[in-house]
Amino acid sequence: MSPGAFIAYFLIKWNQETYVFLRIRVIMGFLIFLYMVMFFLSGIFFFSTKRTILSLLDALSDAILVYVIGAMQAAPFKNQLFPVWALMLVSFRSSINCLSSYGTYFELRNALKLLAVAYLNITHGSKFWHAPFWLFWSLLALKCFYRILARHVASRSLWNGRSSELLQEYMGANGNESSFNPGSCNPDTMEGYKYFVYGESQQSKKNGHGLSVKDLRSQVTLDKIWQCDDSFLPSSINMKGKDLSLAFALYRLLRCRLEGATLHAATVHMNRKLVSKRILSDNAGKELFDILELDVEFLRDSLHTSYPMVFCRGLLSLSFTLLLSLVKVSMASWLYAKIGKVYYPKSELDKARGSLTYSFRYAMHSVISGTELGITAGAMYTILMLEMFEMSRYFISNWSKLIAICHFVNARNKWQKYVVMNILFRFPAKILGHREGIIVTGQTVLLQPFSSRMSVWKMIYFNFKRNQNKSTVHLKVKRNSSVGKSEKAAVIRALRSMDLEGHPLSRDLPSPRVSDRAESYWLACLEELPRCSHVILVWHIATSLCAINLANDRRINLTSKFQKAHDVANFLSEYCMYLLIAKPKLLPETILMSKKTCQDAVQCAQEMLKDCRSYCDIYDKLMKEEQKALVPGTHDDDVNLSGNILQQGALLANALIKKEDQACLWEILAEVWGHLIVHIAPSSNVEAHAKDLKSDTEFITLIWALFCHCGIEKSELWQDKKGAKSGNDTPGLVNQSGPASGMS
């Protein structure tokens, strides 16, 4: 029997009672497995195709769920546990969406499934667990409609759904200029930074529709939180709360840019002053990037998770959500206890009454043996696990801590404030081991040896899928590298040397730290390479060849300082290559241009390196080509690049290896890559970064957020020479030509 015929017989034609019951049990197990996969994918793992896989699993699991409920209803026999199992499956489906944003359509689909479960219970259910079943069913129905209501409330709240509308009224072009004076603001104490953080509620409406800042009450501003030095608040909690409030205030400004709200020009100058202060700080790598990570994390949560709905009314709505979960756990336990009284053997029931441990062990034995009680026990324990996970995630989230610090500022009972703050800030981290601030990046290497034993390259395979109007290149990448302190320090050094006064970033390499030749390599590439993707590829090839040369020369032993430069250059090189391959929308050029350049490079590599079996072969092949000869420039230290893209990379690598010692070479490469990734980050394509946050948070998105706050949307590196402009065309901002307080 073919597999297709077997599946058809299994799902349709085996109508005997034994086969029907077996089919339902097998499909239930498979469906629970799918739900667990979806749960872990939605809440823990991050990768580029995550949303696509989840969408496919969502459609598949919904179809299977509808099928299995129908199979239970149409079974030629009655089983009292069918309604319970169906209810458990619908509960699973509801729980695995706990970290995603609640959708009205999703909740209505669950409500329809609950109606089907209700009918199944009427026709098949048992009177022995009548009360707990209907209470559990009612709780799930209540949760569905509460989520729909919470979504509506969040969309209308002034601190979330209508945040940009409110800030445009409060911080717009016609706002009160006395509230936004860059000269009087202090980025150390946040004096003068009257940014809204939380708590805005509206007393009345202006002209029936618009907002009026005068009608607001209970608002908590950034300066108010930072200047609240309460003796009851431990210093660690105080600093964490201040960072959260600053990040949330910046997130609200970032959301204004996403939604096209026009803000007062002075806010950009104040943001530059704020950012510049942290760039110049001694601990800039931590201070700056910790704030940016929280900033982007709040943006991701507001767009793609359920946190805005859970906290739509602050701690009150959080408490109600946690209460629903606790009641759900209680109802599930009560229902299982009622079922156990019917299905436990009498001898085992007497033992279970005297020992909870024995009851649990017997339930686990039933799960393993696959009995009806075991299936029910497995479903119940899984529900308990999912609910506990959901409650813990909400409780330890940055949203709960942010709201707690805001309530702390406004509250009067100091002892009550102290207890709440310690529970929310200290208890979760110690008990649950919560980890934050880990940005995972992808890495891709272009130059890889070709093995005759493999049908594709070890790390890269080239495959065209031709349609009527497009062709694509697929390259394998790895996503297990986290951004370290050295990489952040390289970006900080690049930012410190740049002018952040609101104009496009200068194309020059300012004040090279290594030698004047660093600027000559930089400018030589910019003169010959017109596009972002081309620059990335040439410097990536050059960096890879320099790394191969270093690995071949065992006599060279880099000191720890220069080893860091080597690691930084390779990390940023492979990360920028990953962006070019996997995230071209985040680059400052069109997707078609990036793909075309990448296709040409891979084609060229496949043709030139087809006989290479090792890295040494690749190095020798590229470095000994006649076409790669250096072409003298105007000055002795200048180089011009010619030939195809691999030859250009080889020319650059050859110049670096011949003219620089290894320590200086890697310092130059680390400096160039630090500046290059900074020049790649500015972009006016806010939607691309917002959409990309569905799957993960990219390192380049943090730098992009920084430039957004500084009013910078482009770099002169990628402008046409004839059409380059000296101003800033940032939409959503007005009057930016005035003086700004930048870095000195």
Automatic annotation (TrEMBL):
InterPro entries: DUF4220, DUF594. The keyword Nuclease does not apply. Residues 722-744 are annotated as: Disordered. Residues 58-431 form the DUF4220 domain. It comes from the Eukaryota. Residues 727-744 have a biased composition (Polar residues). Keywords: Membrane, Transmembrane, Transmembrane helix. It holds the Pfam family DUF4220. The chain crosses the membrane at residues 26-47, 53-72, 128-146, 315-337. This is DUF4220 domain-containing protein.
